[in-house]
Design brief:
With 439 residues, the protein is α+β, with helices and mostly antiparallel strands. It contains seven helices and eight strands. Strand 5 and strand 6 form a beta hairpin. The N terminus is likely disordered. It comes from Allokutzneria multivorans. This is NlpC/P60 family protein.
Length: 439
């Protein structure tokens, strides 16, 4: 007797196969990714150079602004000196004019006296003054009085001539001083115009460089988006390939399961047949093993610091802004930051961003990049690790900027007025040879 045995179907049938991209499509996608990545790298280098130039021009603008401020101070002082000299000259001229008028008045009196006195150099008074005398003593007394009056007027006239000469000399010196002061004022005005022209040229050059950097940043952002799209396309194709491979594996498992069920059904039928005929059969099986997944550990203090810095991406730069609690209003610097209105903005400057980042792990930093450079252990740049601070200095060794290294040749920073907190490639132009490690 023959018994028919059916084969049960699988609990979950494998669906139809998903798309399977060709190897050529995958290879072309990888080529596109490599091409876009190369463009990003090229633009990143150009942007780094442009931003380095921008920092140099910013420093030049500050110097030119200081020159313009000095020229303005010199001009103010020269104008004040010229005004004082003019007042002095006007006063001296007025005194000389008054002395001249007084002399003319005395001269008129002397001329009148002389016309009524005797001639040939004598100071004896006129006959009219001697008329009516009653004695020789009275005559002598009147002659003495006339002589005294004549001598007094002549002495007064002589004194006034000397006074007018002194005042005329004073007037001449005052006018000479006015000429010198006016000459210095003209020179100061010329220096002020020259300084203003140089400052305006520096500001214009910086603005042009800033536009160039912004253009490169936009170009890089566009290519980075294209790179991301290319990666997504490749990732999509790779996901499709993995999905197809997973489908193939599921299909193989399904076929193997069907084959196993068929074999079990055949064995059961054979066993039943042997039982009927007195035979016996035995079988065996396999036990699979299950591996436990590896658990990933926490990120630690370094990651906390990095995450806090990265949480502020896009926040506006504000000179003097930022503390342990977040962005704050900027302050005036009397130069570039004021031109960008940083004192009206809520944001971070470079050292303020570091203060906020490290406050997350209880580290307090001073709001000055020079002090931050000396706040921890120095490590060579070749040994820098994520969470280390990087610093840049002018040729004189004075530190002017700080950023945080986050790994992979990248850093997070609050760059300069007009920009925002960002992630960018490490710039090596002007960088200090050591990083500062606090963790």
């Amino acid at each position: 007797m023959v018994t028919a045995v059916g084969i049960a179907g699988t609990a979950h049938a494998v669906p139809p196969p998903p798309p399977n991209p060709s190897d050529a499509e995958l290879q072309q996608g990888r080529v596109d990714v490599d091409s876009k990545a190369g463009e990003v790298g090229k633009l990143t280098n150009q942007l780094t150079q442009a931003e380095t130039k921008l920092l140099e021009l910013s420093a030049e603008v500050q110097l030119k602004m200081e020159d313009a401020n000095k020229a303005q101070v010199d001009l103010d002082e020269a104008e004040a000196a010229a005004l004082a000299a003019k007042r002095e000259a006007d006063g001296a001229k007025a005194e000389a004019d008054a002395a001249g008028r007084a002399i003319e008045e005395v001269r008129k009196q002397v001329d009148a006296f002389a016309s009524s006195s005797y001639q040939q150099g004598s100071t004896v008074g006129s006959i009219r003054a001697l008329m009516g005398v009653r004695s020789a003593d009275e005559l002598l007394e009147r002659l003495r009085m006339l002589d005294a009056a004549s001598g007094s007027q002549l002495t007064a006239l002589d004194n006034m001539h000397r006074a007018r000469t002194d005042k005329a000399n004073k007037d001449s010196l005052a006018r000479k001083a006015l000429e010198v002061a006016k000459s210095k004022e003209d020179a100061a005005e010329t220096a002020k115009r020259t300084a203003d022209t140089a400052r305006n040229a520096a500001v214009s050059a910086r603005a042009g460089q800033e536009r160039r950097a912004e253009q490169l940043e936009n170009e890089r952002s566009s290519v980075e988006r294209q790179l991301e799209e290319a990666r997504n396309r490749v990732g999509g194709l790779q996901n499709q390939r993995r999905s197809f491979e997973n489908w193939q594996e599921a299909k193989r498992r399904e076929e193997a399961e069907l084959a196993r069920q068929a074999a079990e059904a055949a064995a059961a039928a054979a066993s039943e047949e042997r039982r009927r005929t007195g035979g016996a059969a035995s079988g065996g099986g396999n036990r699979g093993t299950v591996q436990k997944p590896t658990r990933v550990a926490g990120s630690g203090a370094v990651q906390i610091v990095i995450n806090r810095a990265l949480s502020q991406l896009g926040v506006i730069y504000a000179w003097g802004g930022g503390n342990g609690s977040g962005p704050t209003r900027g302050i005036r610097d009397g130069g570039v930051a004021d031109a960008f209105g940083d004192y009206r903005k809520i944001g971070f400057d470079c050292s303020g961003l570091m203060i906020y980042a490290f406050a997350g792990v209880g580290i307090n930093l001073a709001h000055y990049s020079g002090y931050q450079y000396n706040s921890g252990r120095k490590v060579p740049l070749s040994q820098m690790q994520p969470g280390d601070m990087l610093f840049w200095a002018h040729s004189g060794g004075r530190i002017h900027h700080v950023a945080m290294y986050i790994g992979g040749g990248r850093m997070v920073e609050a760059p300069f007025s007009g920009a925002r907190v960002r992630v960018t490639s490490v710039r090596y132009g002007g960088i200090m040879p050591y990083a500062t490690r606090l963790l």
